[in-house]
Design brief:
This protein is an all-alpha fold. The protein is about 80% helix and about 0% strand. The radius of gyration is 21 Å and the shape is globular. The N terminus is likely disordered.
Length: about 400
């Protein structure tokens, strides 16, 4: 009698399950995107504070996310992924209320600013909770073998939501007023809370609970490779406009569009590559592709070749996060998955924090074109580190 063949995997069903979870990431990043383009103008023009204060208002959210990573990981592991997401959604709703309060107290600029900053802190903490919660929920529901797909779709949801939210926020403020942003944040959060209410949660995994910094140490080798690769993203998004100006070109926004389109296309087309070939090989191939794109930007004699370079960089970087994420999560027990995911995300945050001052110093001494050369070399360094990591034994 012939051996029974295993049932085929229904990828459509898996994708639908993933989308039902990363929906909350989409809501969270839509709420992050809505105010991002109008906040600096509100703080500077309406409240009368300096551009530095406007920058701090934007950056405070990301700092809150970074500092809340240990709490978010612990909440997902100890309280459950669904509970972590619920707390995050409540934080977004409260941030919306504070945004409305800031708009209502605009005649008292300092009070209005302080209330707005409090809302930004809550939004940053909510981002951390929902980011870790959705990943942990998706992996817990579908199994560790679907880690790459969950991370990939989570990234698509976040980038797509910001792309939609930023122009929508500008339109809302232009057509109505600033207070409508707060109302939109609270309404979206309440909508997501209604959706999640009856959704069954995954059971809390019992077992060893690693402290955050212990999990951080376990995932750090993969995290450092992620940082080396992701500095290229921070470099491109921060300095491409100034690079174009230095070259005497126009259309820097198209460079960012090429990066974003190729980034999302790569995730959609090659979402199964990590499961098929393994995390480390995919990460190395992608970082090499990214380095090639960054090198092309460095040497580009025309805007057309710069667009090609940006597209290659986006295409390559796209799968680095999920590919290395699969390998990073193998280094922690399932009972500490949330802590591992939170710790791993810190390294992407770190890349964005490093890119500005590091590449600003390079540009100051060598010119803006050379920042892409340095970013390409760092990506190649990431390839070498990943090659070494691929030869080490697995912890779990």
């Amino acid at each position: 009698m012939s051996a029974q063949q295993p049932a085929p995997v229904d990828t459509g069903s898996i994708t639908r399950q993933i989308l039902s979870v990363v929906f909350y990431t989409f809501i969270a990043f839509l709420c992050i995107g809505l105010p991002i383009a109008v906040l600096p103008g509100y703080v500077h023009d309406q409240l009368g504070f300096s551009a530095v204060i406007a920058g701090i208002t934007i950056g405070l959210q990301y700092l809150a996310t970074l500092l809340s990573r240990p709490f978010a990981g612990r909440a997902a592991d100890s309280l459950g992924s669904k509970r972590a997401i619920i707390y995050g959604l409540l934080g977004i709703a409260a941030s919306g209320v504070l945004t409305v309060a800031s708009a209502l107290t605009v005649s008292l600029p300092l009070l209005s600013l302080l209330v707005l900053l409090a809302g930004r802190v809550l939004l940053g903490i909510a981002q951390g909770l929902i980011g870790v919660g959705t990943l942990s929920w998706g992996i817990g529901s579908l199994g560790a073998e679907q880690t790459a797909r969950v991370i990939s779709w989570n990234g698509i949801a976040s980038y797509g939501a910001i792309a939609i939210g930023a122009p929508l926020g500008v339109m809302l403020v232009a057509e109505i007023n600033f207070a409508t942003l707060g109302l939109a944040l609270s309404a979206l959060a309440l909508l997501a809370l209604l959706v999640i209410r009856n959704k069954p949660s995954t059971p809390i995994v019992r077992g060893e609970r690693l402290p955050f910094w212990a999990a951080f140490g376990r995932v750090a080798p993969c995290g450092v490779s992620l940082t080396l690769a992701s500095i290229g993203y921070g470099t491109l998004t921060t300095f491409v406009t100034l690079f174009y100006l230095e070259q005497g070109w126009s259309g820097a926004a198209w460079c960012l569009s090429a990066f974003g389109v190729c980034f999302i296309a790569s995730r959609l087309l090659f979402v199964n590559a990590v499961n098929r070939f393994g995390g480390y090989p995919v990460a190395m191939a992608c970082m090499a592709t990214e380095a090639l794109g960054l090198a092309l930007l460095w040497l580009a004699p025309s805007p057309l070749l710069a667009l090609v370079g940006a597209g290659l960089a986006g295409f390559g970087l796209s799968l680095v996060y999920p590919a290395l994420g699969v390998e990073a999560i193998k280094q922690v027990p399932s009972s500490s998955r949330g802590a591992g995911l939170g710790a791993y995300a810190v390294f992407f945050d770190l890349a964005l924090a490093i890119a500005g001052p590091l590449m600003g110093a390079v540009a100051l001494h060598l010119g803006y074109a050379w920042i892409f050369c340095v970013a390409a070399l760092l990506a190649l360094l990431g390839v070498g580190l990943t090659l070494l990591l691929s030869r080490r034994p697995r912890a779990y």
